[in-house]
Amino acid sequence: MLGAELAQTAEELAEQLTLDSKILAEQFYFWTVVIMWLIHAGFMSYEAGAGRRKNMMSTALKNILTIAVVTPAFYFFGWWIYGCFQEGFIPSSTTDEFYGAFCSSTIPWSPNMGPNLGDNITGVFWGAFLLFSWTTASIMSGALIERTRLTAYLMLAVLLGSVVWILDAAWGWSAGGWLTIHFGFHDSIASGVVHGVAGAFTLGVLLNLGPRIGKYDEQGNARTFRPFNLHLTLLGLMLIFTGFYAFYAACLVITSTSFPGWLNIYLSPTTLSAITFTITMGFAAGFTGGYFASKGDPFWTLSGGLAGVISVSAGADVYHPALVYLLAMFGGAFAVWVGGIIEKRWRVDDAVGAVAVHGACGFLGMLYVGIFAAGYPTGVGNGGLGVDSSMLGQLVGMATFFPLGFIPGYVAAWLLKKANLLRVPPEVELEGLDMAEFQMDFYPEFERQPEVIDLPDGTTVESAEILLDASRKVIR
Description:
Layout: H1 2-50, H2 56-84, H3 100-106, H4 122-143, H5 150-172, H6 178-183, H7 191-209, E1 224-225, H8 230-250, E2 253-255, E3 261-263, E4 269-270, H9 272-293, H10 298-313, H11 321-345, H12 354-372, H13 391-418, H14 426-431, H15 433-438, E5 452-454, E6 460-462, H16 464-475
Antiparallel strand pairs: 1-5, 2-3, 3-4, 5-6
Helix pairs in contact: 1-2, 1-4, 1-8, 2-3, 2-4, 2-5, 4-5, 4-7, 5-7, 5-13, 7-12, 7-13, 8-9, 8-10, 9-10, 9-11, 10-11, 10-12, 11-12, 12-13
């Protein structure tokens, strides 16, 4: 009798511990989602300050509408893509022995995708991935400011945020993805999966969109538009940095079985402590690299911090902090160098350096793992299906992710351009999107100051005549 009572008590205790673990996990992901909202408050401030006064409100509203369109799209088909396309372009059958359970739980009409009282994880885990989707779209957003039609941007945001990036996540940012299982691809905190692919997509769009009127002189030399409020831009970056701690944390998995504790996205053991070292050292080193490479430029100093973290995110779960510092410092400087090439040699007008900071450093992060973390087991918690990470695996991932990002971005933007839907008319760009879209000045209490342009030779002039002359050439 006593043995039976003890057995029953032990069983009840185990059930309670399991429930407690589920509730703890639910609370954890819920709060990561809440804190990650700061990333998008940051993107809104960052982009609004980086543009000119006449475009500030339209830029801010664009970030809000990103949430409005990407959220339902990700619910109805983005999450399904992650659950069902891990083997390639053909969706897995819901009866598949290995993939079926996850696939069937991500279909929008699944009981898991609603108020299922027995499910303590799907909604909050979906929410974390949704915030990643907003981030990918927002990465593109800043690069296109001041000349893109709102409807065109929102269509591109849905394509990138709810289709392109989540497809590469299914392939290479999951324990069962084909890149993970067959090649040992490793990108634990999404250097390439989020940032690299978003940067490649953005580059494809920019090649079709073209530079802002007056950005380049007749010799092709780059002019610099003075930002409306650089302090607002730097504050936005600091909000993004704060939200990144939650971004990093949401990339981990909590488990009470197999390897009790924290696992990375590939179900290999790691800790919150490990990623805390990486993100903090990464920011500090990135600031340093950006500062010296840009000779103290405030924008590139802070952007260097973001570039540094992105460049070490792929191996954030395994790198030693000292190694992180060296790699991130180079990453911060690398972004400044690539940003200069994109702007001055390629003559691509990326208004916030997104292709350099996110795209180039995202791919650098994947390469870093092949050099400094080859041999680390990936996917060991997935029934032994994973293989060790390797340079080959990272190169295959890079070769897969670039065209996956670039081609849809280029083709979609090209189609919009041919339909005359991609870019606002020259007269609207000159007047400013705020006045054209809202027919009002949002800052009437401040006297409107003449726009200022920094010329390639270092001199500064008011932009009115330059922009008017450039616009005549565009119209002709």
